[in-house]
Structures are given as C-alpha cells and as structure tokens.
Amino acid sequence: MNNLITQLFQIKYPIIQGGMVWCSGWKLASAVSNAGGLGLIGSGSMTPGLLETHILKCKEATNKPFGVNIPLLYPHAEAHIEILLKHKVPIVFTSAGNPALYTKKLKENGCKVVHVIANSKFALKAVEAGVDALVAEGFEAGGHNGKEETSSFCLIPQIARISQLPIIAAGGMYDGRSWLAAEALGASGIQIGTRFAACIESSAHTNYKEAIIKALEGETQLTLKQLTPVRMFKNELYFQLDAMISKGASSEELRSFMGRGRSKKGVFEGDLAQGELEMGAVSSLINKKESAQEIISELVKTYIEARKKLIENNFLS
Ligand SMILES: Cc1cc2nc3c(=O)[nH]c(=O)nc-3n(C[C@H](O)[C@H](O)[C@H](O)COP(=O)(O)O)c2cc1C
Description:
Elements: H1 4-9, E1 15-17, H2 26-34, E2 39-42, H3 48-61, E3 66-71, H4 77-86, E4 91-95, H5 103-108, E5 112-117, H6 120-129, E6 133-137, E7 143-144, H7 152-162, E8 167-170, H8 176-185, E9 189-192, H9 194-197, H10 206-214, E10 220-223, E11 230-233, H11 236-246, H12 251-258, H13 262-268, H14 292-312
Parallel strand pairs: 1-9, 2-3, 3-4, 4-5, 5-6, 6-8, 8-9
Antiparallel strand pairs: 7-11, 10-11
The protein binds flavin mononucleotide (FMN).
Flavin mononucleotide (FMN) is lined by residues 18-21, 23, 42, 44, 69, 71, 95, 116, 137, 140-143, 170-173, 191-194, 197, 267, 278-280, 282.
C-alpha cells in the first residue's frame, strides 16, 4: 500500500496502534511495527527512566519504524521529549495539550510530528504549530476525548474541510470496513486503540482485556466532562461518578473522589469495580483475544474484501 501515511512513516500499511497508558509498551509497539503497521510506545504512564528502557527494548525487538506518544499535560512530558531526542526516535504523536509547545523543537531535530485532536479548534492550532499529520479522534474512542462529543463520521470530513494535512482516523475503527469508510471521509490512515489494548502483547491486566471482550453495546460512556472527559466502561466507579455529577458535584469534589492512579488500578491492576476502565464503544465488536499480527492481517484482508465488494456492486471502480 502506498499513500500519504505509509510514505510519511515508511511503513507497509497505514495502520497506527494508538499510544495507550498501561497498555502500549515495547512489546505491543514492536509487534505492531513488525506486522507492517506503526507501533507507538505510550509514555503517559512511564517515568523518563522507564521510557528509555522501553525505547531501547523496542529497538532490539524491531528494525521497523516505531514512535512514542506523549500526552503533553502529563508531568514528565518535557523529560520524555529529551529522552526520545537522545535516542533519535523519529516519530512522535503528541496529545492532550498545546501542540505549539514542542513541535518546532521536535521538527528541528528531524522528527515527524503528529498531534491528536477532537475538534476543529485544536486542528487549526496543530496546523499552525507545523505538525506533519493529524489524528482526528471521534468521541467513540477509548480514553480521554473531546467534550463536544463529535463522532468520527462527523469529525473526519470536518477536519478534511479545514486542513490539507494527512488525516489519521481514530475512534471506532475496528476492521477493513471502518478503515475504508474513514478513507471515503478523507482519512489516509487509521489509529486503533481499544482492539490493541485487548490483544496478547498489550501490557494491560487480563481482567481488563476480558472486560473489553465481554463488553456489550451501550456499556461504555463519555464521562467527567467537567474535568478531563474520558470514555470508560460503565462499572461501579462510573455509576458512583454519575450519581455525584447528577447531584451537581463540583470539579474539586470529582477530582478528590477520583484521586490518583485510577486508570492504573483498572487497566494495569485489573480492579474492575473501582478502576477507571478506559475503553471505546468499539468494545462491543471485539470478542476474542488475538495477537497484533492477527489484527493487522485481518484488517488488511477485510479492507481488500470490503473494497472488492463495493467494486462488484459498481460503487467503486
Ligand atoms: C486504555 C487506553 C489508554 C489510552 N491512553 C492514551 C494515551 O496515553 N495517549 C493518547 O494520545 N491516547 C490514548 N488513548 C487513545 C488511543 O490512543 C486511541 O486514539 C483510541 O483508543 C482510538 O479509539 P478506539 O479505542 O475506538 O480504537 C487511550 C485509549 C485507551 C483505550
């Protein structure tokens, strides 16, 4: 396959594994890169020292391109940038913060920079900051997200309308059919989170992976819009939050109730009741444990099949 995204990153397929706290260490990132996609180490749950270890292990495990995701609001962002420059990681996906902060510096050091956005306002900021591509993340996506609740199907064409940069579609991407639909809307690649979070090489807890596999339609929800909006599984913690929000709890009360380390508790330690189980609406489609290689192979197979079907029905030529 040859398009703007495969060219930008020098990869075989325009399939990105989203950087994910507590899930995407060197094992997952290298497995995705070895399978022809682009693996991203999720630095948001790492100390600078741990990130350095993961970068070195990833380099040993693959000779294909891989990158690092840096959520800019996290305390170690600046130190993480220094580590990835030291080790000459050539691809950086920034998220959750101001893209103007480090883009210039990263680009001056030869990095390709991509920023994750959930609305037009941030897309324009990222374009202005000089990024190479945008991840347009609809609110179906697992994890932190935009409070506007713009779905991927509305967001992708919205961003294609205001920017010429290559777009990577995220949120609800499951197989080759969603990939093809995203392309029709203006994307050149896809970013998948939840399906990779549940896969064998993900460092998440088995309980969390099984919760994704078992989740049904309607069992995830965007919540905590007052603080940092997040899509999570509707577990005991979610319903406690929901009750507080209904009673008009302040941001301060919600912050103090959540405390620290809720996503570690849920995703990494497997506490299904009191942990924050970040997962996307796509969970209802995920029903088996698979390897990163199996996911990529199935994506490519179903993409080719979906395209063929449209051509046979005279919708495409
Ligand atoms: C458990 C989990 C943790 C995540 N952590 C991050 C993160 O640290 N940084 C980030 O930019 N996005 C994060 N995301 C979002 C993913 O990178 C990806 O964009 C999103 O999951 C795509 O939507 P999907 O879940 O429908 O596939 C996370 C998602 C999940 C499910």
